[in-house]
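Board work, copied verbatim: S-acyltransferase
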Amino acid sequence: MDHHCIWINNCVGHENYKIFFIFVLYAVTACFYAMILIIGSAMYSVPVDEHSSNDSSRTSIIICGIILCPLTLALTVLFGWHIYLILQNKTTIEYHEGVRAMWLAEKGGNLYHHPYHLGVYENLISVLGPNIFCWLCPVSTNTGNGLRFRTSHDIPLSTPSITAMVSNRSNNAASDEQ
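↓ predict structure ↓
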């Protein structure tokens, strides 16, 4: 589990983190779109005469805009925070644990390295899935089982093991001698 989200009234973790992230992305996009519509409506709803009834509609548009501003700001900050977490391949809990681990490492004269940071592209793949064209689709494309995750210390799965490479070289050298 990463955290409990009051927006969706559910815990966010390995199985639904991508869906949560896409939800926040679409919410931010919708807020900015609504903001553009509200600004356009407020600018172009100029009353024809002074005693027009457009004043009440213009007032309601302005009130909606005032309410929408902090919501847009909060969602944008939340979205930016989760972009940072994805690029670092951290959960919210791992971030807070990492702050303490970094402090303890610096206190001991060591450097702290987050073990699950695989590089920006691999971090994106680990959350959004291997198919770039499906990154914005709100479907779960998890890699792994949610219990074991690749670390920066692991040998990549596509790289042959060193013992296999050494044994192949010795076999090739033996066949060349004959």
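Residues 159-166 have pLDDT under 50 and may be disordered.
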